[in-house]
């Protein structure tokens, strides 16, 4: 067991069982739950340091509308999985951690697996301009763990907006999106720096609202699969393929 895994295992074992039960209840009821305790402080610091360093050194600007999600916008800078993987730091260790995945599985009420599609394992997104947003969408795989490295103040946008228990219609994405947004309650949460949230992302319509003013929201997105996902041949990757086309083409060459 490496030092990262040993420290995380020790930290998670010391957490109260009642806290885990409360998080699991919230996840069942809302398909999202926030956590402020998942990692020890010294690992939080190294995770943030790596993410910010990679954004400054390697992030690529994304400004596009994604057809598969009804032409919803993506406007941010991003660092893809392969660049993070080559850096071989705490972000990769987080994704590989059996202890973290086991703890999240307790909260989710079912096992979390490493996704069988490498480009979706982990990425870094950084909204940094007024109007930057991660538009309405569903994810390909069931679970997303989003770690917030930098957060705007609560009046400057960047809130997580979501509609639980919804389905992605890939044949008519725009019509489905408009139907949900017009007729269902849109919930909203502010997530501060140093905390994270687990979401059932394939059946929760969600977005990150646009920023206002001179601020920044930087997150690490970790994707995990359910057991059913591992053999689901209907899962496709149109969104990732459009957003990250240059990197994916280069990796395939």
A few lines on this structure:
With 253 residues, this protein is of the alpha+beta class.
Text of the CATH class: Mainly Beta
How many independent structural domains?
1
Which class best fits the helix and strand makeup? alpha+beta
**What is the annotated CATH architecture?**
Sandwich
Report the portion of residues in β strands.
25-35%
Instruction: Please work out how many helical segments DSSP would assign.
Output: 9
**What is the 3D shape?**
globular
Q: Level of helix content?
A: 25-40%
Question: Can you describe what's shown?
Answer:
With 253 residues, the protein is of the alpha+beta class. It has one domain (3-226, 237-252): q2cbj1_9rhob like domain (Jelly Rolls, Sandwich), CATH 2.60.120.620. It is 37% helix and 26% strand. Strands 1, 2, 3, 4, 5, 6, 7, 8, 9, 10, 11 and 12 form a twelve-stranded antiparallel β-sheet that branches. β2 and β3 form a beta hairpin. α2 crosses α6. It starts with a helix and ends with a helix.
